[in-house]
Design brief:
By secondary structure, the protein is of the alpha+beta class. The protein has 18 helices and 29 strands. Strands 11-16-17-24-21-20-18-19 form an 8-stranded mixed β-sheet. Strands 1, 2, 3, 7 and 8 form a 5-stranded antiparallel β-sheet that branches. Strands 26-25-27-28-29 form a 5-stranded mixed β-sheet, with helices on both faces. Strand 7 and strand 8 form a beta hairpin. Helix 1 crosses helix 2 and helix 6 packs across helix 14. The longest helix is centred in the N-terminal third of the chain and has 21 residues. It is globular, with a radius of gyration of 29 Å.
Length: 588
């Protein structure tokens, strides 16, 4: 999908279209006052205060009609230069613009005018409103002014604009595909998870079928980790504020944490990450160099106070479960252990058919040191060590300044999903900082105390986000081993005792092989029951009638196909069990 912000010409066109939209809104809602209307990766938006009016879905076509009328007028878009004093006078009755102007330095300020509409803007813009004619308003939402929940709620309208109608049409098709792939829609259709404001925004609840997928992912990664010498632990979801002051998270990450809770004179906080707990587990006893590396793993419940506008189903929530681990190593072991982590990432990606990704070396921003642990020598040592390891492994990577954790640089593996923008799925972070903060040591071969180095790593990232990614990549057509319901048995005539008995026998035969199977012998018509199985994306639908009963066979239909295949019951059960055991993505 196109990134509107990265394409300069597309960005200028969309910025201009945002102004046309604001002009149309002003015509329809004369009381409207505007905040900002930037170009973002997905197109453009404008934030506006409409007083008592609230934008609804049915209002978007009306605004579009007014925009087309403005474009038909062919007005020039004219750049004006004014002084700050003139700007303050021009917008003297608009508190939002006065707030923007007050933050500008003295000097020349630019604004853009098109007919009866003028707004502050750095520009540039296209020459004529006619050039914005290939547009579409996509959605609307409510947002807090400046993202602060204590402020006024503004209306935000999103849109896109392209040079040609063909490009617009292609983009709208991709957006429709994105809706079908959206894990929130798939989750509803398949009955996987739910949210409710009474529980809290950003706090998803996994339903029985969704939790099956979650458990399969947990079992999958834990088995791989155990085979690599990881030891799994369980730690509490809260910690004292002092724990996070010791780690440095309280100073560098407090705004992303839930507020502290005072209990019996002590302050506690919901944990945003697990490293402080794992540091304490390592510190529980003295270690020898012969013990290292120590690999501590946990599927851990974490809580972060994400802004409400960023919440997105199970992809981004305020509660999530990290596939977390911390590796305590000697300096000499960094390369080998880092290499093993990278191998585990790529091995996992192979198992899930993940091929579209890139590696990013996330570094500290030396111009903004307040965000990071203050130790230049440590940062230089850690970043050079990570570069050396990546280069020695021959892994292509790009460097991004300002994306490091506050305690050290990291390798991020960013995936490019079927729809939407890339995001980080897996990470491995190199940390010389926290071991010192927690006074962690090991006894070296000379009997002297040394400080270990820690690798923070997450292979699946969070199980929640990984599940969202897989659901969207597969459109919910999960591989058999991961599907919450693997087989559904459908008797043709649910009022025929003999066929019902055979359907029950088939169901029990499959259950005995640890196959997740459901018997649907409701009084609904067969076509209705089959459509429901298709919507819920059950991989195998078994249709059983008199012929199957007499021959001890099953007739099955793969999800998304219309052809039916007949096999002996035992043969079908053997093949299904083997596909599940091998975690195959193939079908019978």
């Amino acid at each position: 999908m196109v990134n509107f912000k990265e394409d300069e010409n597309l960005s200028i066109l969309n910025h201009s279209c945002a102004h046309v939209m604001a002009q149309a809104v002003k015509h329809l809602y004369p009381q409207a006052r505007f905040w900002v209307g930037p170009v973002v990766a997905e197109g453009f938006y404008y934030d506006m205060d409409l007083g008592e009016d609230v934008i609804r879905d049915e209002d978007l076509p009306i605004i579009e009609k007014e925009m087309k009328k403005i474009m038909k007028s062919g007005k020039k878009i004219i750049r004006r230069e004014i002084t700050k004093a003139e700007a303050l006078e021009m917008f003297r009755e608009d508190s939002y613009k006065l707030d923007l102007i007050s933050g500008l330095e003295d000097g020349t300020i630019t604004c853009y005018e098109q007919g009866d509409f003028t707004d502050l803007c750095r520009g540039p813009h296209v020459d004529n409103v006619k050039l914005c004619r290939n547009f579409k308003l996509i959605k609307h939402s409510g947002v807090y002014w400046k993202g602060d929940s204590n402020n006024q709620v503004l209306q935000r309208i999103y849109g896109v604009c392209f040079p040609t109608s063909e490009e617009l049409e292609n983009h709208l098709k991709l957006l429709e595909e994105a809706k079908e792939r959206d894990h929130r829609k798939i989750g509803r259709d398949m009955h996987l998870f739910m949210t409710d404001d009474l529980v809290g925004r950003g706090l998803p609840m996994f339903l029985p079928k969704g939790y099956i997928i979650w458990q399969e992912l947990e079992n999958y990664i834990k088995e791989k980790e155990r085979n690599l010498g990881y030891q799994h632990v369980m730690t509490p979801c809260v910690g004292t504020v002092n724990l996070y002051k010791t780690s440095g998270h309280w100073d560098h990450y407090k705004e992303n944490m839930f507020p502290a809770m005072d209990v019996e004179g002590e302050s506690f906080v919901l944990r945003p990450m697990n490293c402080p707990h794992h540091m304490m587990i390592y510190a529980n006893r003295q270690h020898s160099y012969k013990d290292l590396p120590v690999r501590i793993g946990e599927i851990a419940h974490d809580f972060r106070f994400e802004a409400s506008g960023t919440l997105k189903g199970i992809e981004r929530g305020r509660h999530f479960c990290q596939n977390d681990a911390h590796l305590f190593v000697t300096p000499e072991q960094i390369k080998d252990e880092f290499s093993r982590v990278v191998d585990l990432i790529f091995d996992t990606y192979k198992d899930f058919n993940i091929t579209d990704y890139r590696c990013v070396l996330s570094l500290r921003d030396p111009e903004n040191k307040v965000k990071y642990h203050d130790d230049d020598a440590m940062w230089e040592k850690a970043e050079n060590a990570l570069r050396e390891v990546m280069d020695s492994l021959g892994i292509p990577y790009t460097e991004e300044i300002g994306e490091a954790a506050f305690y050290g640089p990291k390798l991020d593996v960013n995936v490019k999903p079927a729809v939407g923008n890339e995001y980080t799925l897996s990470t491995c972070q190199l940390d010389f900082c926290l071991p010192e903060k927690f006074n962690l040591t090991y006894i070296d071969s000379n009997g002297e105390k040394q400080t270990p180095v820690v690798l923070h790593r997450a292979i699946l990232g969070s199980l929640d986000r990984f599940m969202a990614y897989i659901l969207e990549e597969t459109c919910g057509n999960l591989p058999l081993w991961l599907a919450p319901e693997q087989v559904r048995v459908l008797p043709v005539k649910n009022d025929d005792p003999a066929i019902n008995d055979y359907s029950s026998e088939v169901t029990e035969t499959l259950k005995a092989r640890n196959i997740r199977v459901k018997l649907d012998n409701r009084s609904e018509k067969l076509g209705y029951r089959m459509r429901e199985g298709q919507i819920q994306k059950v991989p195998y639908l078994l249709v059983l009638g008199q012929n199957e009963k007499e021959n001890n066979t099953v007739s099955f239909r793969l999800h998304g196909q219309k052809n039916t295949t007949e096999l002996p019951l035992e043969s079908f059960a053997d093949k299904i069990a083997e596909l599940i055991h091998t975690k195959s993505w193939e079908s019978i």
